[in-house]
Write a structure and sequence with these properties.
This protein is of the alpha/beta class and 357 residues long. The chain has helices at 65-75, 94-99, 123-135, 165-173, 189-195, 213-229, 338-343, and strands at residues 20-30, 36-45, 48-57, 83-89, 141-146, 152-154, 156-160, 178-181, 200-205, 247-256, 261-265, 272-273, 278-283, 289-294, 299-305, 309-310, 315-322. The protein has 2 domains: 13-245, Aminopeptidase; 247-322, RNA polymerase II/Efflux pump adaptor protein, barrel-sandwich hybrid domain (OB fold (Dihydrolipoamide Acetyltransferase, E2P)), CATH 2.40.50.100. Helix 1 crosses helix 6. The structure holds zinc ion (ZN).
């Protein structure tokens, strides 16, 4: 029988044997029967000391590509040849994963809006607190893998604060099609990590509720490049032909329809569009065009709806605004830390930088 009160404590990498992979199921919450909700973690502790990289997936329960990316990465990884450690949370939101849905099922809340959670809060806040306390403590870096939400499709893109040198470098190393600048939003796991001095980025890998082989390969490729730059593994001999020049977006917005009908789009994921270019038309039930939507500005298509049924206000195109973000208002001072000496990497944790909002 499980204890009535949950014992939540940070994972300690030192508790696990060097040069080995350890699979864990940790009781972070309880069901209505009082049985434990066990959350899977994988600790791969290298034979040599080094940085601790956290990789999480399925913070939204139906975003599955990240799970496959983690599995692919670990299949090819030799713990004996690893410096530092990987701490993976392949199914971060177990209740939503088991229900096959995006949101936390007990209260219908988006778990990625309530980090770092509250010990005496709502069901999602208490779960977020337990996950945050267990997972974030040992990390030096975090990569949180998501996908588009239901009914939408995404390019492979990264959300990162490009004013942080560490986040910028991790974003570039992930080799995405697009990097979207942004201070991490309130309540996200990324923001909670950064507030704890852990540089963190979000990888948006494709579409929800599916395994996409291409995304698994691209995600693994990016993670191997990050691990190489951190000095965790030796250059794995990745094919240079796969390296691409990501498009940098300083901001983005969702374009919404303003009338109901059947939406026909005239753009593709990753496509650059120009101001006033025809993006979409609405047809009525007789096939007549009743409305059209043009690009309000130049940009690149980051994501799009795949549902042709439109009512006014439906998001249909996630349009990125190309270019570097304006410099931050206050200069930030990074602090030299132990990883530089250990690994020679220029990826510095953000201690000394102001907490993100
Ligand atoms: Zn997500």
């Amino acid at each position: 029988m499980s204890k009535r009160k949950l014992q939540i404590r940070p994972l300690q990498v030192e508790d696990y044997p060097r040069g080995q992979r350890t699979n864990l199921l940790l009781p972070l919450s309880q069901r209505a029967l009082g049985t434990p909700v066990q959350v899977p973690f994988i600790v791969v502790r290298g034979a040599q000391p080094g940085p601790v990289l956290g990789i999480s997936a399925a913070v939204h329960g139906n975003e599955l590509n990240g799970i496959r990316i983690i599995h692919h990465l670990l299949e090819g990884l030799d713990p004996d040849g690893l410096r530092g450690a990987l701490v993976c949370a392949p199914v971060a939101n177990v209740p939503a994963f088991e229900a096959g849905i995006r949101r936390f099922p007990e209260d219908g809340v988006d778990l990625n809006h309530v980090f770092p959670g509250k010990a005496e809060g709502t069901p999602s806040q208490q779960y977020a607190r337990a996950l945050y306390k267990t997972f974030i403590g040992p990390l030096d870096y975090l990569i949180d893998i998501h996908t588009a939400s239901e009914g939408r499709v995404n390019t492979m893109y990264v959300r990162a604060d490009l004013h942080s040198q560490s986040c910028r470098e991790m974003a570039l190393l992930m080799n995405p099609q697009i990097i979207l600048h942004g201070r991490s939003g309130d309540g996200t796991l990324r923001n909670a990590a950064r507030a704890n001095d852990v540089p963190a980025i979000t990888v948006e890998a494709g579409n929800p509720s599916v395994f996409q082989g291409r995304m698994a390969l691209e995600g693994e490729f990016g993670l191997l490049k990050v691990m190489t730059a951190l000095g965790m593994i030796k250059e794995p001999g990745l094919p240079d032909s796969n390296i691409r020049e990501p498009l940098i977006c300083k901001s983005s917005r969702w374009l919404r329809t303003r009338s109901g009908g059947l939406l026909e789009t005239h753009f593709a994921l990753g496509q650059k569009v120009v101001k006033k270019q025809l993006l979409a038309e609405i047809h009525n039930a007789f096939g007549e065009v009743t409305a059209s939507f043009k690009a309000p500005s130049d940009g690149v298509v980051i994501g799009m709806s795949r549902n042709p049924l439109s009512v006014p206000g439906m998001r249909f195109c996630h349009l990125g605004s190309l270019g570097e973000p304006a410099p931050p208002k206050q200069p930030r001072t990074g602090r030299m830390v132990r990883h530089l000496a250990e690994t020679g990497t220029t990826l510095l944790p953000e201690r000394g930088e102001p907490p993100s909002t």
